Please model this.
Amino acid sequence: MDSGQIHMIDVTQKRETERQAVAKGKIQMKLATLELIRKGELEKGDVLAVAKTAGIMAAKETHRLIPLCHPLQLTHIAIEFHLPNNGNFVEITASAKGIGKTGFEMEALVAVSVSALTIYDMCKAVDRSMTIGEIRLVRKSGGKSGLYVAGG
Model:
């Protein structure tokens, strides 16, 4: 491939199958910030409700955000948050599902990323030291390559 050339993958001949992808990520913060989220005491409102909505909306727009992604017909998006009792982070899990000719990995990853960014935005007035990381695909199913489960 010539340098600077880009190509959207041609999926015309691929078979449509049921596909699902699950991604995870974390946003670390001060313990006091996590407690404000738990108690619903942040000025902007319900952090996790807004972050869930943002993640769902972003997953549906992935093809507009990532230049070479195909527009996909999502049939389900789920976002869950885990706030550990003995940790200083929120773990985000996003699942994207549908029937298509290509996978839903990017939709799940975008949902996690935008959910984390939304949490940051909602909490930045009290904690600018938050860090977002460990965003990764943990599971995908469907298509020619079948099942993938991340190790460790």
